[in-house]
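Notes to self after the Tuesday call (sharing in case useful).
The group wants a holo model before anyone commits to mutagenesis around the pocket. I volunteered. Ligand is guanosine-5'-triphosphate. Logging inputs and output together so the record is complete.
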Amino acid sequence: MKKIRNFCIIAHIDHGKSTLADRLLDATQTVTAREAQAQLLDSMDLERERGITIKSHAIQMEYKYKGEEYILNLIDTPGHVDFSYEVSRSIAACEGALLIVDAAQSIQAQTISNLYLALENDLEIIPVLNKVDLPSANPEEVSDDIVELLGCKLEDIIHASGKTGFGVDKILEAIVERVPAPKGNPDEPLQALIFDSVYNPFRGVEVIFRVINGQIKKGQKIKFMATDHEYFADEIGTLKLNQVAKQVISAGDVGYLISGIKEAKEVKVGDTITDAVVPTTNMISGFEDVKPMVFAGIYPVDTEDYEDLRSSMEKLQLNDASLVFQAESSAALGFGFRCGFLGMLHMEIIQERLEREFNMTVITTVPNVSYFAYTKKDPDTPMIVNNPSDLPEPSKLDRVEEPYIKATIITKSDFVGNVMSLCIEKRGVITNQTYLTPERVELNFDMPLAEIVFDFYDRLKTVSKGYASFDYHPIGMRTSKLVRLDVLLNAQPVDALSALIHESSAYHIGKKMCEKLKELIPRQQFDIPIQAAIGAKVIARETIKALRKDVTAKCYGGDISRKRKLLEKQKKGKKRMRQVGNVEIPQEAFMAVLKLN
Ligand code: GTP
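Result:
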């Protein structure tokens, strides 16, 4: 066990984590040339395209140091805030972390939030100044920032480049020298932390774990403590580039387990595996049931595709335990599903996977967070509202609570004013302001999560000219003065366009909403009035004027093939339209409230 090192790489997005991981695999000859492929750890297609590590994996390397063989387990962590719980569990499986900082970008919001997670888990931090090959690199200044942040010595910082391979040997040496060996006892009852799971349609769910104490043996009867399910360890092994089956995995090491589990949701990241007969009394702390944060309706464009959509969602859920959904119906859109996601990125991924892997064309409604509504009749019991149209009538409502987050923003001092105004406009309350250096400031706000779901990221980028990074953590529910803003098209309320909005901005948003819908909904053969209303009160109105000309008219008679082409083109454009009453609404219109600026 003294020869094992478990470590992860933590970094702000794009600071070069995947590239550096590839270099470590090359340098330890974990990857043969034939297998080498850019960014090996990102195995899903979608991940590679987006350049974001969505799911964490682990890989074992062998490394010779002063004549002795060491096993280095690299535990990959996802880089996006939507997946921060998975990051925290991966970190909990390690004794050390490489903290990568881009030599041109310096410390950013995720550098800090991931560092805090690592420090909470008592990890040894190895600071790495990456991308030193860049002409725009500023090694002296950024090193000072790192020293300031960590309280480490200047000599502790390793200069490296994932691009050229510079510094990679030093990093490997530092992992052996500085990361402590695992401490567990192989003779105690089994206690292993599940930090990831991977869905395999042929073999079932593969559970990725770190043994803290005891041993796991092939064929052993085991128990997952949080779910209280028992299984047999049909196959266990270590994770090289491919899986390598083993008979035993002992305290300190990382491995995979296959035991005939068919659905991802049976396996909970953060759960403890123990022996079914001689269980440990200590469940590993920190287990949480992950809850979806953002909800939206997903509807088939063609109502006939409802059953296909259901079976596609069920298949997606088999391999994505964090996706939840339940059937719902909308007066405007018919039958569909209310789906829960970890965040906006997760929602986009699901939508994209439905289209690519299942060939579904869907309409997604405006995302919203999950509210607690208390009625006057029962002011002590929260009613969970995941769809604005489920909010009780204002006359029956006692109060509404919404989820709040603690936001961390790091920006240049020049932009502090802009960032503050934006956060205040988004109902944020500043809780802390720290100058990391004379030019760089860390700001903390308490803010409603709903304001982040709306156009926050884009606005932050704009007001800071791109020089702001952002991260957040949920901090619980708070009472807010929220009203339901309804939209009527042709005097018919369209439930899928309703949104819960803070009282103070309802008029402004109602007005903007009408203007935006006027832009987005194509003109038709008749006038279409658009109204925004709170309860029975109309607060804004616009009209889409009737279309006069026939689009095919300009192909004066003769050319039939041209005419057909034009009609075909129109038909294609219609693909993502929904007929609501007698008005055709394009997909963008359902997202209008997100794009009001
Ligand atoms: P996520 O997985 O999205 O969090 O990103 P990451 O941190 O893994 O970054 P990634 O390795 O994908 O690198 C981001 C970009 O920086 C890519 O375009 C890389 O080619 C580039 N890059 C990474 N390391 C270096 C480096 O040492 N020098 C230079 N010049 N570019 C680098």
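Two things stood out.
Residues 181 and 482 are 53 Å apart (CA to CA).
The chain has five domains: 4-178, 191-275, 294-365, 371-480, 484-595.
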